[in-house]
Design brief:
By secondary structure, this protein is α+β, with helices and mostly antiparallel strands. The protein is built from 7 helices and 7 strands. It has one domain. The termini are far apart.
Length: 181
Amino acid sequence: MKLKFKILIFSLSLITSACNDKSSNSFDLKLIEIIIKEKPEYPILISSTLFGKCNETGVVGFPTKELRFIYKAKYKNLEYAEFVKLALNQKLDLNYSGGVTCFSLDLEVKNFYNNNQFEIFLDKFCKKVNNTEYRLKYDINEKQINSILYFLFVNNYLNFYDDMSGIRYIRNLKYLNYSLL
């Protein structure tokens, strides 16, 4: 009886930890396909920041056109499609001598992300605009913005910067209208 109880408890804890594992998300395949097909002279997501791994513990933010520079400088041995998929899924080190700027994740933001469900993280840093869109809250410390955007990104939320208003809009990729891209 004790063995069955222990197995039940172990199974439940495994299921619970699997459901809370935010790092197991993979990046949206439809968007990867669009990025792969885009023409370098006409970047599709010009006002968005994408994120990748930089060194062992760092992160780098970059526009889509920067992906091609990184690819040519460091990963020509891969097919471009495979490179984009691996890069956006945080599987490649995107640091290269051509000019990406690595940054460390803000410890306060990282701890909040790791200790809470994603919906709580989203509500803390973003204000809901409508059913499909959020915006970054105004009272966020400037030094925390890239860390927040990174955690949104790895959960398939893309940011769009409106330079006229200075607002960063956040949209879950499942609600992105791909026909407009």
